[in-house]
Amino acid sequence: DAGLDYIPSNDFSLYDQVLDAAVAYGAIPARYKSLEGLTQYFAMARGIQQKDVPVSLHPETTTFELAPADRLKPLQHFLEAKNELGIVTRPVLLGPVTFLELSRASRDAPVDFNKWATFLNAAVGVFADLLATLGEAGAETVQVDEPCLVLDVSGPLKTAYTDAYTLLGSILANKRASGATIPKLVVTTYFEALRENLTDVFAPAILPVVDGIHVDLIRTLESLDPVAYAKDVVAAVAAAGRQGFSISLGVVDGRNVWKTDLARAIGWLDAVRALDLTAAGVAELVVASSCSLLHSPHSTEAEKNNKDKELVSWLAFAVQKVHEIVTITTALRDGPTAVAAALADNAASIESRKTSKRIHNATVAARVAAVTRDMYARKSPYPTRQQVQAAALGLPAFPTTTIGSFPQTASLRKIRAQNRAGSLATEEYERLLREEIQLVVGEQEALGLDVLVHGEPERNDMVEYFGELLDGYGFTANGWVQSYGSRGVKPPIIYGDVSRPEPMTVRWSTYAQTLSTKPVKGMLTGPITMLCWSFVRDDQPRSATAQQLALAIRDEVVDLAEAVVPPELGVPGHPTRIRAIQIDEPALREGLPLRRRLWQIYLDWAVDAFRLASSGVADDVQIHSHMCYAEFQDIRDAIVALDCDVLSIENAKNDMQTVLADGTAGGDSVLAGYPNEVGPGLFDIHTSRVPPQTEMAARLAAVAAAVGDPRRVWVNPDCGLKTRQWKETREALSTMVAVAVAARS
């Protein structure tokens, strides 16, 4: 209805695109082949009382065979749009090389297993069959997503791209010769520039086989001139002598929520159009979003009741971004006067945001300017702090704790919704929260945990909750996006300078501490996770926003550490101070640039942000952090540089591969030589499966061997427990505590 020329299909997933591709390619792990339909699909994603893994490959049990038509989602979505709506869509497929690159060997695969040598030809063959199936159904063009083309492509990956697309070209040529209808192919890249891969990989290996390319001009802005990048793409097509080629330029940001500066985007495209595109073999210049709009909320129309009208006026969600694409296209085809009103409205909105007094805060700027290098370090090195903390906390060997959250029950969600709607008074709401904290603390006491948490019943989300209490943040009523799998989040929006007007968590943590003689951790989200899991302002470097967040979190850390827990309240003999504070940074690895040459720049300021947030307290305050679900080997040195006293880290979900990267207690293990205390998770919280005591005990023994000093090993789950039910939570924690107690003897 908006007037978009090319409409994609198969770009929605119930879980993720890699899993969808595994189903389409028939690459189903053997243990799931007895299941069918969505039962099989979600078992592969989450596990059903068995160890959960990502898409995994085994040379003897994995086969590639195109799924039956009734289970072939790309075909079914295409036919649904064609038959029911009369729209011939452009199906979106994950390319075969990216699929294999994002898959890994199963745990029981031979050590010399080479996925490229074993499966590349089979994957390409099935991919070609899928293209022919879509062509027969009437698809004219297929979008082939190959985002791994923007990585550092060398070695086996570079060879794979060359071999895969050479083979694909040969197979498709044979199919055409046999009378098959093969759709045109547009290779799509995003989140980075091709850079040297344009001439080293795409031009020689892929360009001869495909009919178009999409590039992201937005995510390159900090390091590359977008117009120069687009011109390089045109030059590569010209050098290849291709004719009728399509170039799609992503000028509307698909990963953020701000309105596009339409005048700037039109200027970029005019500069590219000034080239002799016909002579270069370019038949079509397509205006597009930088990436899928899956990463953007649906529509600002759902924000009509949002009281922050000014903020909403600066935003463009998926529906609005489609209209921006159409407006830009119309301006290029028919001239700016054809969309003069839309361009004028956009220019006014862009100017409003630039000049709003809400954006810049002189007090924040002065505080940032006053930061000195000594603020990035604790008062004493870890060995000294360890002795002080051991005396202050008095914990046993293999101390037990959890990551922070406890089950977010239906009743908790109900009272939170009632309070937001105004039907439950804040006083009564907070009384019910205190009752929940009492329950959670009591449960932990009964289970025998050593360091407790308050359970976070007041928090809707680990980022949104804090954002609501910080200046510089804005919020939506319905700005939901897919987080992982079938879970959604509603990220807050950082629109201006960030500061903390008042304490955020002190009253909840101090109240929980009055309920137990055991230490209770204060629970905070770290500055990098706040940054990565928010929609972030694009008018200053992300490093500057991270520093502002770090100062805000630092204030909360200091207030938690200095708060007095009233000795006359609660149980007799409870601690009168919060001596353990956890600052979660699960997104530290996620924030890495895609190109390795840029990693250290990011890691330097990211580590600085954490240290700035955590270093304002005395030696007797134990700083914890938590990380989960990432390739930790990539950032091992940065993890050490954080200098947190205790690190809890995901470990059970990938069956110890995070901790013991090479299958031993040393080598590339994240824990080999790790200098501080660490708690690799003993059970995966993303599945209802409760491992037996023997399994958890084996993991703990391996962890202790990897660390080399049992006195520095903690016992905890992989992650928070908010998504679990109470029954399985009690059972898993009881087993975990039993393992720790046995290890002490």
Task: Give a written overview of the molecule.
This protein has 745 residues and is an alpha/beta fold. Helix 8 (226-240) links the parallel strand 7 and strand 8 (245-252). 44% of the residues are buried.
Task: Provide the descriptors you would attach to this structure in a database record.
alpha/beta, 7-stranded parallel β-sheet, 25 helices
Strand order of the largest sheet: 1-3-5-6-7-8-9
Fraction in beta strands: 5-15%
Helix content: 40-55%
- Specify the overall morphology: globular
Distance between termini? 70 Å
- Please tell me the overall pLDDT: 92
Structural class designation: alpha/beta
Low-pLDDT residue intervals, each spanning 5 or more residues? 49-54, 662-667
Q: What Rg, in angstroms, do the CA atoms define?
A: 27 Å
Output the number of helix runs.
25
Biggest sheet, in brief? Answer: 7 strands, parallel
Number of strand elements: 19
How would you briefly describe this protein structure?
This protein has 745 residues and is an alpha/beta fold.
Give the SSE map:
Layout: E1 8-9, H1 17-25, H2 37-46, E2 56-57, H3 73-85, E3 90-94, H4 96-101, E4 104-105, H5 115-137, E5 141-145, H6 155-177, E6 184-188, H7 197-206, E7 212-216, H8 226-240, E8 245-252, H9 262-273, H10 277-280, E9 282-289, H11 309-313, H12 318-334, H13 340-355, H14 362-369, H15 382-393, H16 410-421, H17 426-447, H18 464-467, E10 471-474, E11 481-484, E12 487-489, E13 493-499, H19 506-513, E14 521-525, H20 527-532, E15 535-536, H21 542-562, E16 580-584, H22 599-614, E17 622-627, H23 636-642, E18 646-649, E19 677-680, H24 693-707, H25 726-744
Parallel strand pairs: 1-3, 2-4, 3-5, 5-6, 6-7, 7-8, 8-9, 13-15, 14-16, 16-17, 17-18, 18-19
Antiparallel strand pairs: 10-13, 11-12
Helix pairs in contact: 5-6, 6-7, 7-8, 8-9, 9-12, 16-17, 21-22, 22-23, 24-25
